[in-house]
Specification:
Helix content is 20%, strand content 24%. It has 6 helices and 13 strands. The strands form 3 sheets. A 6-stranded mixed β-sheet has the order 4-5-6-7-9-8, covered by helices on one side. A 5-stranded mixed β-sheet has the order 3-2-1-12-13, with no helix packed on it.
């Protein structure tokens, strides 16, 4: 069994500064890391699918590294529209997996046990929407062709689908057709995972499951009206866990960051030991 935790949309700020006036993103990211660290069994790796910071500054990335270095398992990140790929790459200069892509771009491919994890950079400087440039599309095709039998997850920040949340759909991946054409030729891609929308959303893309992760702090308001407001709230923060096994392939679970009352055994007269 291989477990890959997906966190997304941390929106970290300088220490002591909330995001969006009221969202204590630093505190909630620290809680998320602590929750993942307490998981049993232990995850094999963590991927954070973009919007690592809120403004893409060196100070925010210094804060990011201070938080992520608390993980005792390998971790990987990709940029979102709130990030700066060049600044992020400088912050990750000592991480070999991050140093192989072009100077202004951060994409990578790594092995996590039997699973191949590919991270793509859909950020566009100064813009909210996502794009994949031609060199990155070509790299993805070559990478998938070189590992044609390995079960693969492709991670990107901007969803390539229409979710129904109108104000977020306007900033989705703009060249989704090019990505779909590549993935359709490579059957080993079994999951596409995204961030950006701050909600748990499940769909299909290029004939395979696509999941969008909830935020670790604030969530986007659930509203499917065409003119729905651009707003956020504080529904419980959560993250996704992608489990791979030879028997069942990929299975995705959602787990909450915060602790809730319980657990209570179904049969109170039985002796139950909870780890």
């Amino acid at each position: 069994m291989t477990l890959i935790v997906q966190l997304t949309d941390l929106h970290l700020r300088p220490r002591g500064v909330p995001a969006l006036r009221v969202s204590e993103t630093n505190m909630m990211a620290e809680r998320a890391v602590a929750t993942v660290e307490a998981m049993t069994p232990r995850p094999d790796a963590v991927i954070i699918t973009g919007d690592l910071t809120d403004k893409g500054t060196e100070q925010e990335y210094e804060n990011l590294l201070g938080i992520l270095e608390r993980f005792s398992v390998p971790w990987y990140v990709i940029p979102g529209n709130h990030d700066s790929s060049p600044v992020l790459k400088r912050a990750l200069a000592t991480h070999s997996w991050a140093s192989k892509s072009p100077a202004d771009n951060l994409h990578f491919a790594v092995d996590i046990g039997p699973v191949r994890l590919i991270g793509l950079d859909t950020s566009v400087p100064g813009k909210a929407h996502g794009e994949l440039d031609s060199p990155q599309i070509a790299w993805l095709d070559e990478e998938l062709s070189a590992h044609g039998t390995q079960p693969t997850i492709v991670a990107l920040h901007h969803p390539p689908i229409v979710t129904g949340i109108a104000h977020m759909d306007r900033t989705r991946l703009q060249d989704a057709a090019a990505l779909e054409a590549i993935l359709s030729r490579h059957d080993q891609v079994q999951r596409v995972i995204c961030g950006h929308v701050h909600r748990p959303i499940f769909a299909t893309f290029a004939g395979r499951p696509l999941t969008i992760g909830p935020g670790t702090a604030h969530q986007i308001v659930f509203n499917l009206e065409e003119g729905g407001p651009s707003a956020f709230n504080f529904e419980p923060p959560a993250f996704l866990v992608h489990k791979w096994s030879d028997a069942s392939g990929f299975v995705t679970h959602m787990a909450y960051v915060e602790a809730f009352e319980g657990p209570y055994p179904f049969w109170p007269d039985k002796s139950v030991t909870w780890s």
